[in-house]
Amino acid sequence: MRRIIAGVATLATFAIVGVPAAMATPTGGYAVFAQCPVKGAGVNGCIYSPTESGYIKIGKQEVPIVNKQILQGGLLKEEEPFVKHLAGALNGETLTKTAQKVPGGLAGLVECPKISNLIERILCEGFFENGLTGVNAVTELAAPASSVVLNTAAEQLGEGTALTLPIKVKLENPLFGSECYIGSSKEPITLNLTTGATTGGPTGKPGTKKTKEEGGIAEISGLSLVSNTFTAPKATGCGLLGILDGLINEKIGLPSTKNTAVLNGKVELANAEAVEESE
């Protein structure tokens, strides 16, 4: 009997503090906005934007996008119409850390015979002998979420910068260690992406706009964001004491001003109040 009474008391306490409400998530078409901080200060909108194909070419190395990467979070109220800074996603992944395979793997980035350090050279050859040659590239956000800027007017018109995205690219392989990056928080790779044309490079697409959930969600599909105006610094932190930095930089051609990004996908936008009401 004491246990039953204690259980009832616990449930009553949960009801008072509102645990079920805290666990509520958006429903229906609004479910994609589950990471939107609808109760955050200054947040009046939500964004969900998956990139499903395309590529990023840095220097001489092109990496195709085959695994979906998502940009998500809140949209902050701004004085300037059509321009929105992002508020961070609830789970901390405003830009999901999605790995993409680097064509050629380790063989495409590092030539073991060129490694002057004996220990590093032996390790490098050991990785090839054991088949541990795969390399992943993971694009990460290199600045606070508020540094990401969406301009919906530029996106629809195909003129100017539609999305500003500061990134860094992590190269993953056991030989590289855990801090092998191209770009950093201090020296980010800043993509100024457009749905229009670039000089001597690819041309983007504004996409097709429609509404869902009785007009509560704006969806732009068939979107293509492009840029060929960004610079990329040298790779740092690769291998023991960064000994592999020079080899990677030589192979890729870093630092580089000849870089291209093509991000194909869609964007969904909704009012924060509507997202909250769907819970």
Give an overview in words.
The protein is of the alpha+beta class and 279 residues long. The protein has one domain. It contains 7 helices and 14 strands. Strands 1, 2, 3, 4, 5, 6, 7, 8, 9, 10, 11, 12, 13 and 14 form a 14-stranded antiparallel β-sheet that branches. The radius of gyration is 23 Å and the shape is elongated. It starts with a helix and ends with a helix. Mean pLDDT is 89; it is low at 1-22.
Task: Please outline what is shown here.
Strands 1, 2, 3, 4, 5, 6, 7, 8, 9, 10, 11, 12, 13 and 14 form a 14-stranded antiparallel beta sheet that branches.
Large-scale geometry: elongated
Count of DSSP H/I helices: 7
Taken in chain order, the helices and strands follow as HHEEEEEHHEEHEEEEEEHEH
How many domains? 1
The radius of gyration computed from the alpha-carbon positions, rounded to a whole number of angstroms, is 23 Å
Q: Main sheet, how many strands, which sense, barrel?
A: 14 strands, antiparallel
**Cα distance spanning the termini:** 36 Å
SS content category: alpha+beta
Assembly state here?
Answer: single chain
Fraction of residues in helices?
10-25%
Stretches where pLDDT is under 50 for at least 5 consecutive residues are 1-22
Q: Assess the beta-strand content as a share of residues.
A: 25-35%
Q: Can you count the beta strands? A: 14
Question: pLDDT average, as an integer?
Answer: 89
